From TrEMBL:
Its EC number is 2.7.3.9. It comes from Fusobacterium hominis. The gene is ptsP. This is Phosphoenolpyruvate-protein phosphotransferase. One of its GO terms (biological process) is phosphoenolpyruvate-dependent sugar phosphotransferase system. Phosphoenolpyruvate binds at R297, R333, N455, D456, R466. The active site is at H190, C503. Keywords: Cytoplasm, Kinase, Magnesium, Metal-binding, Phosphotransferase system, Pyruvate, Sugar transport, Transferase, Transport. It is an enzyme of class 2 (transferase). Its main location: cytoplasm. Mg(2+) binds at E432, D456.
Length: 575
């Protein structure tokens, strides 16, 4: 008899296959056995070197298949692996207690992670999770234990695990693995983000599925609804094969929209743009029919370096994208470091709440040489395409004025040097703080365009740390307060006569399309794979009907009430 398990639909698709239960080999470490210090220190170093070699291979493979922004995760892992404070602490344990390298490493990592995991700082908590992943690899390599390889599994495999680390997901053999299921995790976990980039169906947060299945069992993964069926009947297999085919047929139909514009039934044209992290993402952008780049996250250019990238290095990265987009708009965000993103070569202060601290534009205005170098590179690249500059984390009009003054200084320098650039290059800002959303008209008078960053706007409006598992259920962009902030931003932009787009996750949420169209959003910018579906939704909608929906939505008092009304509207309009 089949069994139904409910989880979270992390990456869309449907798959039927055989389980591979991914469980690590349990190491028994003797912490009391006395060992030769010199021998153990040598084993510790060899294990670290081997781990670094493995991580570099995974990083390079990830860069080739998923792009530099996803590969940047492993740069952070390698930095943690090379942390000399941790290494020295482990060596001290070996020398003082004469224990094995495995025992010292396990003790050192446990103590370090325990300390980090109890801090309120989200970035440091995430470092603890990453360090456990790295520590496990390091201990296995010291002990000479083989690390399970997800790159050589049989055809039609469904990987089932308690959790999958970024390094696990990056190794998945896409020719043979058809889906994965995990017990923990959510839509914003690294593994879920990578699954979407790989277009691999994934259901996460299933609870105790590892205790319910064994390797070789047949499972159905419905990552459109978050359902997993263990030991399905023949009728269920037929039903889901039909559903899978219908889903694939729809994907093929959506491909036909590649060269079409996003125009509603009543003739309202909006932008269907993509978010990228590096020039390597452009192929997926063009394949999915994006009409522009709504967000180019330049921080990955900084994170993938052991020093600040030079003006010429930045110029080349921006120029490539501008040329490939052939005159379509390319919105490039200035360096957004801080919060959950750090640079190994730039010492950021340890703050109790980095998301409210020294980050993004605040760093750049305090260190104007960073911003001027980036501005000069962006201006030079603007001679090769339609580049727009966007400032992150704005909350004060004076920040815009100071940044614009630096931009004008850079223009004057380049004129003297005889360099070509777009003299009328657009300067815009992210709407991420309630300070901007609730006074949008006045901020709009200072800039050329707005782009709403819903990830941070939701977090700041609701006072919810989206990385805190205890309260993550409160993080919901369908909350009427967040929707009100979005509506005010759109109204303020239009009152001042500028355009407004959205580059947060909400723009790619197919359920949200009619709300945003009804509010008057000018452009939707999202992950490239979401573009065809959102484009289809816009082409199926009448904006006037969406405006009526918005009025009804804004009368609601809870996110659940909002979603109930929106889903009913979408069903009636066949979205």
């Amino acid at each position: 008899m089949s069994k139904l398990i409910k989880g979270i639909d992390a990456s869309p698709g449907i798959a039927i296959g055989k389980v591979f239960l991914y469980q690590e080999t349990k190491l028994v470490i003797d912490s009391k056995m006395k060992c030769d210090v010199e021998c153990e220190e040598k084993r510790l170093l060899e294990g670290r070197d081997k781990s670094k070699e493995q991580l570099l291979k995974i990083r390079n493979k990830t860069a080739q298949t998923l792009g530099e922004d996803k590969a940047a995760i492993f740069d952070g892992h390698i930095t943690l692996l090379e942390d000399e404070d941790l290494f020295d602490e482990v060596v001290d344990l070996i020398e003082s207690e004469h224990i094995s390298a495995e025992a010292a490493l396990q003790q050192g990592i446990d103590e370090y992670c325990d300390m980090l995991s109890h801090l309120e700082d989200e970035y440091l908590r995430e470092r603890a999770a990453d360090l456990r992943d790295i520590g496990k690899r390091w201990i296995y390599n010291v002990a000479g234990v083989e690390i399970l390889d997800l790159g050589s599994l049989p055809p039609d495999t469904v990987v089932v695990a308690k959790d999958l680390t970024p390094s696990d997901t990056a190794q998945v053999d896409l020719d043979n693995v058809v889906a994965f299921i995990t017990e923990i995790g959510g839509k914003t976990a690294h593994s879920s983000i990578m699954a979407r980039s790989l277009e691999l169906p994934a259901v996460v947060g299933t609870g105790n599925i590892c205790s319910l299945v064994k390797t070789g069992q047949t499972v159905i993964v419905d990552a459109l609804t978050g359902d997993v069926i263990i030991d399905p009947t023949e009728d269920e297999i037929k039903k889901y094969n039909d559903k899978k085919q219908a889903y694939l047929d729809e994907k093929e139909l959506l491909k036909q929209l590649k060269d079409k514009e996003a125009i509603s039934k009543d003739g309202v044209k909006v932008g269907a743009w993509a978010n990228i992290g590096s020039p390597k993402d452009i192929d997926g952008v063009l394949r999915n029919g994006a009409q522009g780049i709504g967000l180019y996250r330049t921080e990955f250019l900084f994170m993938n370096n052991d020093r600040f990238p030079t003006e010429d290095e930045q110029f080349e990265a921006y120029k490539i994208v501008a040329e490939k987009m052939q005159g379509k708009p390319v919105t490039i965000r200035t360096m957004d470091i801080g919060g959950d993103k750090s640079l190994p070569y730039m010492e950021l202060p340890k703050e109790e709440n980095p998301f409210l601290g020294w980050r993004a534009i605040r760093v750049c205005l305090d260190r104007p040489e960073i911003l001027k170098t980036q501005f000069r590179a962006l201006l030079r690249a603007s001679a090769f395409g339609h580049i727009k500059i966007m400032l992150p984390m704005i909350m004060d009009i004076n920040e815009i004025r100071r940044a614009r003054k630096l931009l004008e200084e850079c223009k004057a320098e380049l004129r003297e040097e005889g360099a070509k650039f777009d003299k009328n290059i657009a300067l815009g800002i992210m709407v991420e703080t309630p300070a901007v959303a609730f006074r949008a008209k006045y901020f709009a008078e200072e800039v050329d365009f707005f782009s709403i960053g819903t990830n941070d706007l939701t977090q700041y409006t609701l006072a919810v740390d989206r990385g805190n598992e205890n309260i993550s259920h409160l993080y919901n962009t369908y909350n009427p307060a967040v929707l009100e902030a979005i509506r005010l931003a759109i109204q303020g932009a239009h009152e001042a006569g500028i355009t407004i787009s959205m580059c947060g996750e909400f723009a790619g949420d197919a359920n949200a399309t009619p709300i945003l169209l009804g509010m008057g959003l000018d452009a939707f910018s999202m992950s490239a794979i979401s573009i065809p579906k959102v484009k289809k939704n816009i082409m199926s909608l009448d904006k006037k009907k969406c405006e009526i929906l918005v009025e009804e939505v804004m009368k609601q008092t809870t996110p659940d009430d909002v979603l109930k009304i929106v889903k009913k509207f979408n069903e009636e309009n066949s979205l």
